[in-house]
Amino acid sequence: MAFLGLAVFLFIQFYQQEKKIGSTNSGKGGDVSEENFNFIKRLETFQDDLDISRSREELVESIADFCRENFTFDKLTLIFLDAEKKDVAVAAEVMGYKDDFDTETRFSREESLLWKVLDGEDSTHIDLTDASFLDGGRFSKGDTQDHHFFSFIGAPIQTSGRTIGCLVLESFSSGRYRRNEGRNLHIFSTRLGVLLDWWKKYDVVRETAMRDGLTGLLNHRSFVERFQQELQRANRYNEKLVLMMLDLDKFKRINDTYGHLYGDYVLRGTSAVLKNGVRNIDIVARYGGEEFAIVLVKTTKTKSFNSAKRIIQSLADHQFEKEGQEVQMTISAGMAEYPTDGEGMRDLIAIADRAMYTVKGRGGNDVEVGEIPQ
Asked: What region holds the GGDEF domain (predicted)?
């Protein structure tokens, strides 16, 4: 969309919200319009620079960077509704004050300002010095008394007429968002809904391209991209993660004895066992051939070792049966930990691979914890 079209669209939104957001002095409208126009130009630059092929995490990070540069706040919270549980909201990004909650905190529906924003269509600006709000909550009941913010403004984010989340600014100063920043937040959240809708449509196409056609797991290329993203995330939040490399034992005999269609059946079944053995937040991929990769986030080798053993045992216990032919399969696995064993993807894969082949040398059907070569 050309800048003029974007400007017209956003100024219509701005003027429609002029009274609702809190303008009390129309005599200053000229100055405000000029400031908003400058904000729109920065928003246009943000849109031009935004790469919708980015992952959801990278998109959220770009949104946070724009907010940091264009809004004044002591706490900023980007909220998205849970895709499966509409009465649950999740903090996708939190900047500033974090003594009350941080990223990935979940909020169930209750009487609070958060749900007032999510249930509304317009920006909600509240002066928290008003005693009538002291018994309520910003995000959860009682948090207005425990955390002394004086200004709160939230703007819903909508795509195709449906609210998918909101953006909330808070300040320890009173009266912070009565004028320009409150209007700008509404403008930004309105445009953000359009951008997120574009991203979602692109992501459907991208998701199809990311999947292995046989197993439905992430393919090799997508695994590399996601693994890099998780390493960056772990570094950003000072977290650990575990990489598992897995390889089916003696898989060649399946293709040679029962044919490639049976081999495909075994690969699909193995993929399902691996997927069922991890959490929703973990990553499972077909690395190539009969080799798989799993990224266990926010954990260590010590904490996840028993889970890895259960995955190995689950596959050994799984009965593969097709067209009257029954087979038992086993798998070998090696583990490497970030950043203990290495900070780069190649180093971690190499360490996990070596550990996996150590298991192969012992006959398979086990998991080995990798170590940095001496």
From this structure: 239-372
